[in-house]
Amino acid sequence: MLKWLNFPEWLPENASTFGEGVDNLFVLIYWITAIVFIAVMAVLIGFMIKYRFKEGRKADYIEGSTTLEITWTAVTTVIVFGLAMLSLPQWNRLKIPSQFPSSPDDVLVQVSGKQFNWDMTYPGPDGKLGTDDDLTLENQLHVPVNKVVHVKLTSEDVIHSFFLPNMRVKQDALPGRTIDVWFDATKVGKYEIPCAELCGFGHSGMLGYLNVHTDDAYAKWVEEAWK
Amino acid sequence: MNDHANESHDHHHEESFVSKYIFSLDHKMIGKQFLIYGLIMFIVGGGLALLFRWQLAWPDKPLPIIGVSQEYLDEGEVVSGADKMWEKWGEDDEENWFERTMHAGIIGPEFYNALFTMHATIMVFFVVVPLLVGAFGNFLIPLMIGTRDMAFPVLNMLSFWTSVLGAVIMMAGFLVPGGHAAAGWTGYAPLSSVPDFTGVYWGQNLWCIALIVMGVSSLMGSINYITTVINMRAPGMTYFRLPLVIWSLFIVAILLLLAFPVVASALALLLFDRMAGTSFFAAAGGGEPLLWQHLFWFFGHPEVYILILPGMGLASEMISVFSRKPIFGYKSMVWAMISIAFLSWVVWGHHMFQSGMNPALSMGFMTTTMLIAVPSAIKTFNWLGTLFRGSIRYTVPMLHSLAFVSMFVIGGLSGIYMANSPVDIHIHDTYYIVAHIHYVVFGGSVFALFGAIFYWFPKMFGRHMNATLGKIHFWLSFLAFNGVFFPMHILGVAGHRRRIHNPLDTDLRGPGGMEIQGINEFITICAFILGAAQIIMLVNVFWSMYKGRVAEQNPWHANTLEWQAPTPVPHGNFDQIPHVYHGPYEYSVPGADADWIPQTQADGEPSHGEPIPAGATAD
Ligand code: HEM
Ligand SMILES: [Cu+2]
Ligand SMILES: [Cu+2]
């Protein structure tokens, strides 16, 4: 029974460096909201039982209480502001390009959504996109483990959304624009890349795969791919 | 306050059937018209949801009854009437959209997309707004502020018939070649703006046109509400003696008035893109897809508060009456609604955290969104305060109001997760949001609405609804509602995307790698129970109109003015325009001989009634 109420347990396995930061926020909010919910329900049900109609007892005439109003306004404001402040560093780290990590070892790839596939374009040996040695694969994203991956995200037609549940990444892909996305996978494996934004009749089946390789396996894949 | 209102139009004009029931100018009749119309659209919107819930639970299986039999699927053997129908239909040469998109009674992806798009469009624009704002706004405003009718009765009548026109146009979309709009109720461009991306042509155009027409109807209504509340309050009815439901409807009218022009312009641009070759939203032609989202949500967020504020107002009335206590913190309730109204203009970006809008904006939108949770929390605490030391009567309207409070709490708390932009990264566009929406709009607004129908039915139709049926309907709905929507939270956290035709397309897993399609089946079964329960409600409404127990003038011993008017309420509402001496919630005042003091009762005047007897509270 508890399994159905324990939201954090339902998060997909996290396999990225920043995923833990996001999950921690989720867990924090989970506990705050769970406690608030239980407290409110306890009071509600308690009052419902205690103050139910009884013969001969009249309701008390109470119009309100300024102290209480001020208290609960202030407490709620502090909690929600606190949450906003706590989440700011996470957000900046994940989404603001000027704060992305960057080193020469990083991997670069272009991902382009089109009804109803993900085109993954790799820059090839020269490390530059838009040159002759680029390689485009449909729906297969290959990256090495423990390396920062920079994604240049775009779309050819409608809006799609690049969703990596296990990396805690989601970013809409917009036609006519390129958006920078990054992640750093910490676990070798094959993960799904569904499209999360309604993009037409094939939306449901629009699915790519993220293949996170060990360094050796990745080197081997590179060798095969640009043979 | 307003001399004009005092000159009663006593001269009783003869009314024909048409002027009484069809093109009626009487706010009460228009309110009832909106009620019937909203309930009919509710059946349509709910039916669509049951169709796509079937597909989600048992993907690509033929629908029961209208789908083909298993034998036909396996062997091509015609054994049922449905088999015959689809076989015959398949032989027709003519291109038929239904035939193509739900061949053999299996819901195909195009049809699926049209189904959820129209479900949400109908529920938001043609059910919740007409019922909460149209039906109750019309019926309650003049009665509760103590006047004879709306400021502009003809405009009021036009508002109703314009909205019917909107509904007819919207429904026509199901019949055009290419099928109905399939870009979601949010209609994101360029999916919605370039016909080739969906294959939908007139469906989406009609969707735009119908929404514009619907908006014109809302504009007429809101101008009327605002004028009426400002100018036509009975003598003594100051702003801070207005019942909270009137405050909520007044604020909603202002929101509608300001929000509609924005979405109307957006819809017009969308139509231009589709029909006149412009590219406001198409990047290929130099347009900006995000412009649509900004315009839509600038309207859309106030719109979601348009859906909930009247529910808050209605629930406040019922909670006070059935606790026999004043609303706790009346003024802070009013200020909370006013601040929600202001804040709702500056939070729209929370729908766009992952959209590609400048990520630096998220900080601002996250803060304003978190802030809007504060007045919501204040209202909740005040409802609890109202119950405190009350004398609570568990009538059917009260059960619904308490359900409203608890479900709204869940919806508000789930909002906090999404307001937090890093957490929203994972749950955006998943079933988590579907859960949130439904906790606030169904658990919130619709439960308040059911309670309100029950509560004001005696004044509307002069008869009571049946309490036993009411309780059965309540408990079934309440349990089935939670069975449907609570599990959606965990599906969303697991990564179940919204708006997908087949959940088996991805390999979704729960804790420990468990399969989770079973949850979808459970949800669908609960959805069918929820749907079936609504039949009880409909039977109760229509049966009670003619056969219900005849109602006395003020069966709940309530203070507000509508209960001081005779039942059935005559044309012109009051024999004499009432004079208001009190706020609306003077219940259980110490020293008074009854536990209620009507707003019309002057100090020192003898009380109008006896304390409410226990037996009378059952319904
Ligand atoms: C405590 C107050 C609330 C907060 C903090 C809140 C927060 C949010 C956020 C952040 C989203 C966007 C999530 C996303 O797309 O990732 C959202 C969506 C939504 N909210 Fe709320 N919300 C609150 C109350 C309400 C109320 C009262 C209603 C309506 C009655 C409502 C109706 C909706 C709807 C319909 C959507 C989904 C729109 C769509 O994408 O189709 N919310 N809410
Ligand atoms: Cu998609
Ligand atoms: Cu919003």
Structure commentary:
The complex is a heterodimer of chains A (227) and B (619). Chain A is an alpha+beta fold. Chain A is 34% helix and 26% strand. In chain A, the strands form 3 sheets. Chain A has a 5-stranded mixed beta sheet, with no helix packed on it. A 3-stranded mixed beta sheet of chain A has the order 4-10-9. In chain A, strands 6-7 form a two-stranded antiparallel ribbon. In chain A, strand 1 and strand 2 form a beta hairpin. The longest helix of chain A has 32 residues. Chain A is elongated and about 90 Å long. Chain B is an all-alpha fold. Chain B has 2 domains: 102 residues, no CATH class; 442 residues, Up-down Bundle (Cytochrome C Oxidase, Chain A), CATH 1.20.210. Chain B is 62% helix and 0% strand. Chain B starts with a helix and ends in a 72-residue tail after the last helix. At the A-B interface, helix 2, helix 3 and strand 7 of A face helix 7, helix 12, helix 13, helix 14 and helix 15 of B. The structure holds protoporphyrin IX containing FE (HEM) and copper (II) ion (CU) (2 copies).
